[in-house]
Design brief:
- This protein has helices spanning 11-23, 49-64, 98-108, 174-180, 182-199; strands at residues 2-6, 27-30, 68-77, 84-85, 118-128, 133-144, 160-162.
- By secondary structure, it is of the alpha/beta class.
- It has a single domain (2-199), classed as Maf protein, CATH 3.90.950.
- Strands 1, 2, 3, 4, 5, 6 and 7 form a seven-stranded mixed beta sheet that branches.
- The longest helix has 18 residues, at 182-199.
Length: 206
């Protein structure tokens, strides 16, 4: 299996990445706190999810010399013109908590009818090793609930209802969420790419 350094200090995201990737038996996840050279702070200055994922992956690979993955995730709410988008993690401010971000979103959607609360989660993962830089993307369509529901997950999970369900991500068991989530889809695409790299089917640098 490939050893991958995770370019994130977010413990919830690290756990989710580890759970999904290691279930594919393709990669062994290396948490950043076990890597001495891991950068303490990487400014996310990109204008898109792709740019931010790339910035983080390049910074970690150059600092550690190890294969790594970085992801950036955005929640795009249609009635808000695609916001919060690239600012999803800091929607209510640079140091905002998950609860503060959710509260701001629900406030912005006050009075908006259920059928107009359509949204999607989009995750872009950047993989970087000594030979290549590759991207994998996952999208989960859904809608924003009118109030917080559930105790599982993190971030906006308590207000996001995936299409085809009546429960929020926070009301779903982790394995059920991973089966339909944006990050789960992106990670399964990444796992397929890594498997192809290991078998020599694709050695093209992107």
């Amino acid at each position: 299996m490939i050893s991958l350094v995770i370019a994130s200090h977010n413990p919830h995201k690290i756990q989710e990445l580890q759970t999904v990737l290691e279930a594919q038996h393709i990669a062994c996840v290396v948490p950043p706190n076990t890597v001495r050279e891991f950068p303490k702070h990487i400014p996310e200055t990109g204008a898109t999810l792709e740019e931010n994922a790339y910035i983080k992956a390049v910074a970690v690979f150059h600092a550690t010399g190890q294969a790594c993955i970085a992801d950036d995730t955005g929640l795009e709410v249609d009635v808000l013109g695609g916001a919060p988008g690239v600012y999803t993690a800091r929607y209510a401010g640079e140091s905002a908590s998950y609860a503060e971000n959710r509260a701001k979103l629900l406030k912005a959607l006050e009075g908006v009818a259920p059928e107009q609360r359509t949204a999607r989660f989009r995750t872009v993962i950047c993989y970087h090793d000594a030979l290549r830089i590759s991207f994998a993307e996952g999208v989960c369509e859904g809608r924003i609930a009118q109030e917080e529901r559930g105790e599982e997950g993190f971030g906006y999970d308590a207000v996001f209802i995936p299409s085809g369900y009546n429960t929020t991500f926070a009301e779903m068991r982790p394995e059920a969420k991973h089966a339909v989530s944006h990050r789960g889809k992106a990670l399964r695409k990444l796992a397929a790419m890594l498997q192809a790299y290991q078998s020599g089917e694709n050695d093209t640098q992107v």
